[in-house]
Design goal:
The complex is a heterodimer. Chain A is α/β, with parallel strands linked by helices. Chain A has helices at residues 19-33, 57-61, 73-85, 104-111, 114-117, 147-151, 164-176, 225-238, 256-266, 281-293, 315-321, 325-336, and strands at 15-18, 37-41, 66-68, 89-94, 127-132, 157-159, 181-186, 193-196, 209-212, 217-221, 243-247, 250-252, 269-276, 302-306. Chain A has 2 domains: 3-196, Rossmann fold; 209-336, Rossmann fold (3-Layer(aba) Sandwich), CATH 3.40.50. Chain A has a 7-stranded mixed sheet with strand order 3-2-4-5-7-6-12, with helices on both faces. A 5-stranded mixed sheet of chain A has the order 9-11-10-13-14, sandwiched between helices. In chain A, strands 1-8 form a two-stranded antiparallel sheet. Chain B contains 12 helices and 7 strands. In chain B, α1 (8-33) crosses α2 and α2 runs parallel beside α9 (213-228). Bound molecules: thiamine diphosphate and magnesium ion.
């Protein structure tokens, strides 16, 4: 298989790697392949990143290509923009997704619009990597899922991988893409393992995946919510409910086709995300499904998402905040008009 | 300066505040190790002289804006250890009812405007408090504590520019512990003394030994007096060191700093050094220091018990406090 072909999970070279390990392997292979790729961000050099994402890069490629920056998110993204316009292929890291807001001018006013404002004359092969998601008692400023902010800005591509396999393949696609891309890892998944082919492979941006085949309802989920949805689907299978799960993998551009096709088959859709429900991706997906498959729907498109509040610190509250398999299953039963077991 | 300058009362106060921070933090670290403290824990141990020196010099109505390493600032401002410990454990009786945790701990009644999870986030807020003080025409001063690493971020520079342009009563206190997370300061800053940055904003600045509470106290008195007199902001750089890792309780065996360096700094320990000086000078007896330590330890032990006994917040509180209810 060639380096750019999409690998399958049973590829001969697949080994079990962690989510963060898959990222780390991917970035190293990319850097070996292309001298113009460098990484920059807080603690990414000697420390190898606070989550180990960039581990070993400074040793292998030197600090010229694994750059420890000052704590200066605006300038970190700006460094990437300028270097990209000047012909390099930067990967810049914002430690937590919450910190994109510190850099939002560079991301949304600069990176996203440069090509368009310049009449198409600029190219911006920039990748921003970051870590989102709740569940670790990291509280209101270190747990957010802010993809809706980013998806709303024309010019950005936003990627939310749900497995080690997808993370590596999507990282490759992001770095090779000549547009600004934002790759959001999920912090609570860093240690999750799965099969990852050894060679460099690419999962195209904007192409979703059917991760579970089913007939009764379509769950649309991305990032960590895919594994929670899988758990919910297994529970529901015991109740005779057969769920299909679609993982769009990139939320901008969004693979509407794969979602609509599934909706036409199952006639029911439940969208699941960690971000707050109001104004989240679920609203966009629900709108697109009703625009394209209205006549096929047997129930309103439902959303299982976080309630409208900042993310609480206490495990006693956060456990009720972040969607989980139980709440997803409840949402699906409701959409199907099925009673809870034992009810 | 001479050790005889501060009154014995002030010396006792400095000592008491430093010990309250140290023993509180050590207890918090133990709970963290025992998995009783969720989330991130950024301990202040090693830097106690800075918060204590500044807060003893402050008035009660003066405000504090703090950082992710904020427990020491709240303790030094007079924070209630029970409510602090409960908050760090995510319990209902905590300062923020379990909603904030370590990085968002605050006590508005003590004019402690909060720790902060965003590096640099506290500086503009302190400037706003300083603005309110000037607007009201009172002589209250707001103090912002911040790390060396945070002076690389835009928010710090915008806050410094604003405070000096509007001549606001703000005291900038930089705790230079030579690291931002796992990166040494010299790798990400082309100057050695952070205080050099103050000059660019027309602010007077001084360097003090951040392991010496008396020196910090003296510098803070000057900065506060200047702000109270309407002469605008000033800047203190306190050279200090954190004993524990950026987050959590590991001390030695780290890739980004040597064990020897840690041991060198520990020789300058702010509490040990202070106790030695005041006993040798005959100002406070060793017995009295020991009694204070026992008393503070009892207070901390009680706080741990209080935290452990406090319930987790009721899930019904999840969606309260998002907005202020209008009546
Ligand atoms: C905007 C932002 N960027 C990065 C971080 C992650 N972070 C938390 S503390 C820290 C280091 C801060 O260093 P310094 O200001 O020197 O304070 P210290 O930890 O040494 O007390 C970093 C990078 C953050 N919380 N906010
Ligand atoms: Mg520091």
């Amino acid at each position: 298989m060639t380096a750019t072909e999409t690998a399958t999970e049973n590829a001969e070279t697949a080994r079990e790697l962690t989510y963060v390990g898959a990222f780390n392997e991917g970035i190293k292979q990319l850097m070996r392949e292309d001298e113009d790729i460098f990484v920059a961000g807080e603690d990414v050099g000697i420390q190898g990143g606070v989550f180990g994402s960039f581990s070993g890069l400074a040793d292998e490629f030197g600090e010229r290509r694994a750059v420890d920056t000052p704590i200066a998110e605006q300038a970190i993204v700006g460094l990437g923009i300028g270097a990209a316009v000047a012909g390099l292929r930067p990967v810049v890291d914002l430690m937590f997704m919450d910190f994109i807001m510190v850099a939002m001018d560079q991301i949304a006013n600069q990176a996203a619009k440069l090509k368009y404002m310049f009449g198409g004359k600029a190219e911006l092969p920039l990748t921003i990597t970051t870590n989102g998601g709740a569940g670790l008692s990291a509280a209101a400023q270190h747990s957010q899922s802010l993809e809706a902010f980013l998806c709303h800005v024309p010019g950005l591509k936003v990627v939310m991988p749900s497995s080690p396999h997808d993370l590596k393949g999507l990282l490759v696609a992001c770095v090779r893409d000549n547009n600004p891309t934002i790759l959001v890892k999920n912090k609570a998944m860093l240690g999750v393992t799965g099969p990852v082919p050894e060679e460099l492979y690419e999962i195209p941006l904007g192409v979703g995946a059917k991760v579970r085949e089913g007939t009764d309802v379509t769950i649309v989920a991305y990032s960590r919510m895919v594994s929670e949805s899988m758990k919910a689907a297994e529970r529901l299978a015991d109740e005779g409910i057969n769920c299909e799960i679609i993982d769009p993998r990139t939320v901008q551009p969004l693979d509407t086709d794969i979602i609509v096709e599934s909706a036409k088959k199952t006639n029911r859709v439940v969208v699941v995300h960690e971000a707050v429900r109001f104004g989240g991706l679920g609203a966009e997906i629900a709108a697109q499904v009703q625009e394209e498959a209205f006549d096929y729907l047997d129930a309103p498109v439902a959303r299982v998402a976080a309630p409208f509040s900042p993310i609480p610190f206490s495990p006693g509250l956060e456990g009720h905040y972040v969607p989980n398999a139980k709440r997803i299953a409840a949402g699906i039963r409701e959409t199907l008009g099925r009673p809870a077991p034992g009810a | 300066m001479s050790i005889l300058e501060p009154s014995v009362e002030v010396l006792k106060d400095l000592h008491h505040r430093m010990l309250r921070i140290r023993l509180f933090e050590e207890a918090a670290g133990k709970l963290f190790e025992g998995n009783k403290m969720p989330g991130f824990l950024h301990l202040y141990v090693g830097q106690e002289a800075v918060a204590s020196g500044v807060c003893v010099a402050m008035r009660e109505d003066d405000q504090v804006s703090s950082t992710h390493r904020g427990h020491g600032h709240l303790v030094a401002k007079g924070g209630n250890l029970n409510q602090m410990m409960a908050e760090l454990m995510g319990k209902a009786d905590g300062y923020c009812n379990g909603k904030g945790g370590s990085m968002h701990i605050c006590d508005l009644d003590l004019n402690m405007l909060g720790a902060n999870g965003i590096v640099g986030g506290g500086a503009p807020i302190a400037v706003g408090a300083g603005f309110a003080n000037k607007y009201r025409g009172n002589d209250t001063v707001s103090v912002v504590f911040f790390g060396d690493g945070s002076t690389n971020i835009g928010a710090f520079h915008e806050a410094a520019a604003m405070a000096s342009a509007l001549k606001l009563p703000v005291l900038f206190v930089c705790e230079n512990n030579e690291y931002g997370e796992y990166t040494p300061r010299h790798k990400v800053m082309a100057i050695t003394d952070v205080v050099d940055r103050a000059a660019g904003y027309g602010m007077p600045g001084v360097i003090v030994d951040g392991m010496d509470a008396i020196a910090v106290h003296e510098a803070a008195l000057e900065g506060l007096a200047r702000a109270r007199a309407g002469e605008g902001p000033s800047f203190i750089e306190a050279k200090t060191y954190r004993y524990y890792n950026h987050h959590g309780v590991q001390t030695l065996g780290m890739k980004y700093r040597t064990d020897e360096e840690v041991e060198e700094w520990k020789k300058k320990d702010c509490i040990e050094g202070f106790e030695k000086r005041v006993t040798e000078a005959g100002l406070i007896s060793a017995d009295e220091l020991a009694a204070v330590r026992a008393e503070v330890q009892a207070e901390v032990d009680a706080a741990v018990e209080f935290g452990e006994n406090s319930p987790y917040p009721d899930p019904s509180t999840l969606l309260t406090d998002v907005y202020t209810e209008m009546v």
